[in-house]
Amino acid sequence: MTDRPLRHATASSTALTPLQRLTRFTQDMGTLTDRAVIAERILVELCDATTSHQGALYLLDREHDRYDLVMTVDLQNTTAALPSFASTHALIQSLAHKHHFLSVADVADIPPITPELADTLRAAQSTLAVPLLNKARLIAFVLLGFPADRLLDHADGRDLLTALAQSGANALDSILAHDDLHQSQTLMRRTDRLRSLEIIAGGFAHEIRNPLTSIKTFIQLAPERKDDTEFIHDFSRIVLDDVHRIERLIQEILDYARYMEPKLTDEDLNEIVTSCLYFIEVKADSKRIKIEKELASELPRVMLDRQQIKQVLLNLLLNAIDAMGDGGGRLLVRTHRITKPGATVWTQIEIEDSGPGISKANLEHIFDPFFTTKHTSGEHAGTGLGLTIVHQIIQEHHGEIQVESTEGVGTTFSVNLPALPID
Ligand SMILES: Nc1ncnc2c1ncn2[C@@H]1O[C@H](COP(=O)(O)OP(=O)(O)OP(=O)(O)O)[C@@H](O)[C@H]1O
Ligand SMILES: [Mg+2]
Fold first, then answer.
1. Within 13 A of 401's CA, how many CA atoms are on the CB side?
2. How many other CB atoms are there within 10 angstroms of residue 292's CB atom?
3. Using alpha carbons only, how large is the chain's radius of gyration in Å?
4. Are residues 271 and 178 both part of a single domain?
5. Low-confidence stretches of the chain (pLDDT beneath 70)
6. Ligand 1 pocket by C-beta < 6 Å: which residues?
7. Buried b (16+ CB within 10 A) or exposed e, 325-351
8. Do both 38 and 160 map to the same domain?
9. Shared-domain flag, residues 418 and 271
10. Residue range(s) defining the domain that contains residue 266
């Protein structure tokens, strides 16, 4: 759990029947989604129901195995709330294992508490501790100040408090579950990334071995062949190409390794596609490649990192141009709005070429780091990192990339990105 500022809520007091109170509260718990708002609502409700002057809500922080103070209500400015309780603290142990309220006063049906616990409650200027449990797990608890215990004199009051606490615990538990999911997704993405960096490091060593060998050979031979101008001329060109290749590899790896959290802005994909096509027009013209575009007229807007998505599209467009070679061809770029099961709206960009296509065996490897069929030596040889980077960026955008290819016919790459909800 990330650290959040402590919030101070204000209690309200409305005259409601217990049933009205419970119904309204349960409805709110079902609709609220923000952790701070839920915590505030729970605390205000419990203070209100028990007519307490003050209260403090502590929420489980699983990562640090403790309960942190996240919200207080203090009508008399007297709270001495502790910032957190370790899960080993006697108060937590008692709330987590006994599953009932702890009260400093003698209350029917509630076992008396130990003098040590009574001291803890008094030190926090509280008279009552209410556990918020879900499936026997202590999610949170509330400490309430004077005169909190009065409600507990009647069985109805105790039942109401139990029901309110249960409803609050359910809502907080789903927030904690959502945080856990988010955390594990981030962790998985980082692990994936580390794994591919490991492959990249291995691949890099392999890739630079050949150019290094040629540079080394040149340096070894140069002293004895220094008068052979043809040798020096030809070999120095090869060596320069090799140096360029190593420089390019280093640059691409640096680009990939730099962890770039996308900076998302609300964008029009058609406009980004058009600006990328403008960049490649001259190159396509020189290779007699005809560019066609079919852009959807009502394309929903997308949250994306403009530079990164441009990088994706340029990589795909340049791959298509490379594939068609010098013999000319057709490059078709389309955008669509698509609806997926569950009625979620996505945008799709398709880049279709009339190149030679990709064999089934190669298709499995095109996203692998260093997989390339552009082996011509020199500055313009492929590094095989283009599609690895494309894949990484699309993943960071929670999008999808697919490829369909038929040998002798052509290849189509489709990039799907979730659209912004229409409000
Ligand atoms: N549109 C396409 N048609 C045919 N083959 C393709 C196409 N796009 C990619 N490929 C194949 O996938 C391989 C990997 O592409 P990728 O973009 O990762 O690397 P590259 O283009 O070879 O090198 P780099 O992008 O680093 O200059 C290419 O070498 C090519 O064999
Ligand atoms: Mg490429």
1. 19
2. 11
3. 32
4. no
5. 1-14, 75-81, 147-149, 185-197, 199, 256-260, 343, 376-380, 421-423
6. 315, 319-320, 323, 353, 355, 358, 362, 366, 371-374, 382-388, 411
7. eeeebebbbbbeeeeeeeeeebbbbbb
8. yes
9. yes
10. 260-423
Say which amino acid occupies 132: L
How many angstroms separate the CA atoms of 405 and 402, rounded?
A: 10
Instruction: Please tell me the predicted confidence (pLDDT) of residue 261.
Output: 74
Residue 301 is part of a domain; what is its CATH number? 3.30.565.10
Q: What is the pLDDT of residue 299?
A: 93
Could you tell me if residue 189 is inside a domain? no
pTM over 0.85: no
Q: How many CB atoms lie within 10 A of CB 91?
A: 22
Cis ω before 83 (30° cut-off from 0): no
For residue 372, the CA-to-ligand 1 centroid distance in Å is: 6
**Within-domain flag for 246:** no
Q: How far is the CA of 306 from the centre of ligand 1 (A)?
A: 22
Q: Domain ends where: 139, 157, 182?
A: 182
Quote the CA–CA distance of 51 and 128 in Å, as a whole number.
12
Q: What pLDDT does residue 5 have?
A: 44
| pLDDT score recorded for residue 102 | 87
CATH of the domain at 23: 3.30.450.40
DSSP bridge partners of 57: 71, 142
Which of 246, 387, 412 gets mutated to test ligand 1 (max ligand atoms within 8 A of its CB)? 387
Q: How far apart are CA 339 and CA 353, in angstroms?
A: 25
Domain boundary at 124, 151, 182, which? 182
Work out the number of other CB atoms within 10 angstroms of the CB of residue 12. 9
Count the domains in the chain.
Answer: 2
Q: In the prediction, which pLDDT does 354 show?
A: 97
CB-count burial class (<10 Å; 0-12, 13-18, 19+) for 423: exposed
Span from the CA of 368 to the centroid of ligand 1 (angstroms): 10
Q: 146, 21, 3: which is closest to 84 by C-alpha?
A: 3
Domain contains 255: no
Which ligand gives the minimal distance to the CA of 405?
Answer: 1
Domain assignment present for residue 240? The answer is: no
The answer to whether residues 37 and 177 belong to one domain is yes
Position 291 scores a pLDDT of 96
